[in-house]
Design brief:
single chain; alpha+beta; Porin; 13-stranded antiparallel sheet; 1 helix; 13 strands; 20% helix; 58% strand
């Protein structure tokens, strides 16, 4: 019996010790296991977030180009004109957007002529299709035409007329609401039909590029209120990023300040930089 008691006591103590050691081990390993699970959960959530962000925005689909143009003359007429432009567009699978901000500053014979600012935003739906829809808005100020603020917003439909690696030609038509606050005359508000023809063409294996955009914008409510503009540029790529360019721009507005002419034209030369 004493031997059995000692053996029984030893067995009980061994089992108690084993149970205690397992409990201690479990207490030591459980937090580590929980931390690993939490780390895995956080990592998975981060990967899902990155995956969703990439699906919503892909940097490789963002195209941009920046322009610096100028026109400088000395002699009987002293003329200084600096034009800064940018083009940025993002072509997503469903929604695409584009903006073309512009700032012009010019002096003639020491007198301020241009201090004009323009920014637009186009939101396109299924732009890759031959026929697509879009909305747009613009804000504009112009010292040249004494426009304190011009606001424009509307929506329309676009037609891809010609699409090849060397050529792109798009026709759009939209109905717009326009409000123009002049410096002296009363504010003019009207509905316009806006037709736009935009093209880009490359020649001789992209050694020359021709871009052009033309707007025809008659008022629906008053046919005497008519605006149109055209911009044509010829680019000579110097390398993948930089191009030499010369551009011609002409604008016409039937309703202007009493001291302003209806038609303006300008010829500029400069450089463009970007991946577009």
């Amino acid at each position: 019996m004493p031997t059995f008691c000692r053996l029984f006591t030893f067995t009980v103590l061994f089992l108690i010790f084993l149970a205690a050691s397992q409990t201690s081990s479990a207490q030591e390993t459980t937090p580590d296991s929980l931390l690993r699970q939490q780390a895995d959960t956080i990592q998975k959530a981060r990967q899902d977030s990155i995956r969703k962000a990439k699906a919503f925005f892909r940097p490789d689909l963002l195209k941009y180009r920046f322009y610096t143009d100028g026109n400088f003359a000395r002699g009987n007429v002293t003329r200084d004109l600096l034009v800064l432009r940018a083009e940025m567009d993002y072509s997503g699978p469903v929604i695409s957007w584009a903006t073309h901000p512009r700032f012009a500053y010019g002096r003639q014979n020491g007198v301020l002529a241009e201090r004009d600012f323009y920014v637009d935003l186009f939101i396109d739906i299924y732009k890759q299709h031959k026929i697509y829809t879009f909305g747009l808005g613009t804000i504009e100020t112009s010292n040249l035409r004494k426009i304190v603020l011009r606001q424009l917003a509307g929506a329309g439909v676009g037609f891809r007329l010609w699409e090849t690696p060397e050529n792109s030609l798009v026709l759009t038509n939209a109905i717009l609401f326009e409000s123009t606050n002049f410096r002296e005359r009363a504010t003019v508000e009207t509905l316009r039909n806006s037709a736009r023809l935009k093209g880009k063409h490359s020649f001789f294996r992209n050694r020359f590029r021709l871009t052009h955009i033309t707007f025809l914008q008659p008022s629906i409510q008053n046919w005497a209120n008519f605006r149109w503009s055209t911009n044509v540029a010829l680019e000579l790529p110097l390398n993948k990023w930089i191009s030499f360019r010369t551009g011609f721009e002409n604008t016409y507005e039937s309703i202007v300040e009493a001291t302003r002419k209806r038609n303006d034209s300008q010829l500029t030369v400069g450089l463009s930089i970007g991946n577009k």
